[in-house]
Design a protein that fits this description.
The chain is of the alpha+beta class. It has helices spanning about 15-25, 40-50, 75-85, 90-95, 180-190, 205-210, 220-230, 305-310, 315-325, 355-365, 385-395, 435-440; strands spanning about 30-35, 60-65, 65-70, 110, 120, 140, 145-150, 155-160, 160-165, 170, 195-200, 235-240, 245, 250-265, 265-270, 275, 280-290, 295-300, 330-335, 340-345, 370-375, 400-410, 420-425.
Length: about 450
C-alpha cells in the first residue's frame, strides 16, 4: 500500500481515467496493491481511512484477484473545487451562478466510444460489484449514472442498484423525481422504459447527474460546468444498441424497466442508518460494454463521496432561493447533519425579519432539511464552534425560532414518523442597530 500526500495543481481532464492517471502521475492517490475482496473488504478499507479523516481517492489494483476499483473520486469539497477552478468555501456561490438548465451549453452526440471496446452479453458476476456491509440486502452498484429517454427527453440520475442475478437489478426510484415519473408514464402506456447505465464517468458528469436541474437538462448542465471549469470542453454522448445516449464510461449496461418489481434493501444510506426494504422496479439487462482493462467506480454508502454528491448540489439551490428574500453570502450543509439534513445560511442582514424569510426559503428549496441556522457575515459557517457561538450569543428563544411541526421530511431520517417530522429554523443574527452589544473583542499582543 502506498500512502501519498495530496495537494491539487490545476487540472485538465476529460474522463475518469484521465483524472485517475493524473492523480497517479502526481502522487495524489491512495493505492492498495494487495488483493482484497469485493465482499466487505474494499468498503472496510475505505471506511477505516475515512474514519481517520482521510478524503483522498482510493485505487484498488486487485479486487477479487483481477479487477481495478476506484473509490472516493469526489470525496471532499477541495477536490471538486479544484476541478471547477474555485475554492471549497466558494462552491455554493460559484455553482449558483451557473444556469440550472445549462443554457448556452449543448452536448455532442458521437458515433463511437472507448466504452465499446468490449461488447458482450450481460453477466453482472463479471463486475467487481461491492457488498459493503453485513446488513446489506446484497451487492450494490452505487456509482452508476442511469440514463433514460422518453418523448425526446433524456434524464440522467444516480440510483442505488441492487444485484438480483446476472442480468437483473432492483433500482431505488424516489417519487416524485424525474426517472420515477418517466417509468410510471411508460408503464401506463403499456411500454418498457429503455435505460443505459454508465459506470466510471467524467467527475463533472457525475456531479451534474446528482444535481436537481430542469427535466432533461443534466448533460447540458454538465457541459456548462465543464465550460466554466478549468477544462472547457463539451460533454460527449454515444448511443447504446437500444438507442439510449450515455456519456463515455468505463462500463456501460443496456436494458429496460418494465412492470416487474422486486424487494430492494436494506441499504446503508447517507445518515449511516439502514433504509427500509421496498418493492422497486427491476432493470433487465440486454447488453454489456466496457473498456479494455476497465476501472470500476464505486461510492461508499454514507461515505464522503456519497454525502458530497447527494447533499452539496442542494447548496446552490438554497442559495438561489434565499437570494430572492435576503442578501445571501453563502450556504453550507453541515457534516454533523449528514451533509443533507442541516444547513447554515449566511446573510448580510439589511432588515429585521429577513433571517426568518431565509429560513422559509431554505426549507422550500430543500424539503428534506430539518434544521436551518441563519448567521451574519462575521461567522465562519464551516466552523461548528462559530455557528454554536452565534446561537449562544445572538438567539432569544422566544423570538428567534421558527418551529414547523408535522412537516414532510426525508425518508432517510430515522426519527421521522410516517414521513413527517418537525422542522426548526434559528435566527442567529445580530439585532440591527445594536451591533456594539455583540462586538467580539480580539486579543492583541
Amino acid at each position: 500500500m502506498r500512502f501519498v500526500g495530496f495537494e491539487f495543481e490545476k487540472m485538465y481532464l476529460y474522463n475518469m481515467r484521465e483524472f485517475k492517471d493524473k492523480l497517479t502521475k502526481e502522487g495524489k492517490l491512495i493505492e492498495i496493491e494487495r488483493e482484497v475482496s469485493s465482499k466487505y473488504e474494499v468498503a472496510y478499507v475505505c471506511a477505516e481511512f475515512e474514519r481517520k479523516g482521510n478524503k483522498m481517492p482510493f485505487f484498488f489494483h486487485s479486487v477479487d484477484g483481477t479487477h481495478k476499483v476506484i473509490m472516493n473520486l469526489l470525496g471532499g469539497r477541495e477536490i471538486l473545487a479544484e476541478l471547477l477552478g474555485t475554492s471549497s468555501s466558494n462552491l455554493a456561490p460559484f455553482l449558483a451562478e451557473i444556469p440550472e438548465g445549462g443554457e448556452g451549453s449543448k452536448v455532442k452526440i458521437v458515433e463511437d466510444s472507448p466504452t465499446k471496446e468490449v461488447v458482450k452479453e450481460p453477466d453482472l458476476s463479471e463486475l467487481p460489484i461491492l457488498t459493503h456491509f453485513r446488513g446489506d440486502g446484497g451487492a450494490y452498484i452505487t456509482g452508476g449514472v442511469v440514463v433514460a429517454e422518453l418523448d425526446g427527453v433524456r434524464n440522467a440520475s444516480i440510483h442505488r442498484l441492487m444485484v438480483l442475478d446476472g442480468k437483473r437489478l432492483a433500482a431505488r426510484l424516489v417519487p416524485p423525481r424525474h426517472l420515477y415519473k418517466m417509468h410510471r408514464e411508460a408503464i401506463e402506456r403499456g411500454e418498457e422504459l429503455k435505460v443505459g447505465i454508465a459506470i466510471g464517468v467524467d467527475p463533472l458528469v457525475l456531479l451534474a447527474a446528482s444535481t436537481r436541474v430542469p427535466p432533461g437538462k443534466e448533460f447540458d448542465y454538465a457541459s456548462a460546468l465543464k465550460k466554466l471549469s478549468l477544462e472547457k470542453k463539451t460533454v460527449e454522448l454515444f448511443k447504446l444498441g437500444n438507442g439510449v445516449a450515455i456519456p463515455h464510461a468505463e462500463f456501460a449496461l443496456e436494458g429496460f424497466m418494465g412492470e416487474a418489481r422486486a424487494k430492494e434493501g436494506p441499504f446503508l444510506d447517507i445518515t449511516g442508518t439502514y433504509d427500509k426494504i421496498r418493492e422497486e422496479p427491476v432493470i433487465t439487462l440486454t447488453k454489456m460494454y466496457h473498456r479494455k482493462d476497465p476501472i470500476y467506480h464505486a461510492i461508499l454508502p454514507s461515505g464522503g463521496e456519497h454525502k458530497l454528491l447527494m447533499g452539496m448540489p442542494y447548496e446552490p439551490l438554497i442559495f438561489r432561493a434565499v437570494e430572492r428574500v435576503a442578501r445571501v453570502k453563502n450556504v453550507f450543509l453541515t457534516e454533523g447533519g449528514c451533509c443533507y439534513l442541516h444547513a447554515v445560511v449566511q446573510i448580510k442582514k439589511e432588515g429585521e425579519g429577513e433571517a426568518k424569510n431565509a429560513i422559509i426559503a431554505a426549507f422550500a428549496a430543500h424539503p428534506s432539511l430539518k434544521l436551518v441556522v441563519v448567521v451574519d457575515t462575521d461567522i465562519d459557517i464551516f466552523s461548528s464552534n462559530e455557528v454554536e457561538y452565534a446561537i449562544a450569543t445572538r438567539v432569544r428563544w422566544n423570538e428567534d425560532v421558527v418551529f414547523i411541526p408535522g412537516a414532510k421530511g426525508s425518508s432517510l431520517d430515522p426519527s421521522a414518523e410516517n414521513g413527517l417530522t418537525t422542522k426548526l429554523g434559528i435566527d442567529a443574527t445580530k439585532e440591527l442597530g445594536e451591533e456594539k452589544r455583540y462586538e467580539r473583542v480580539v486579543t492583541t499582543e
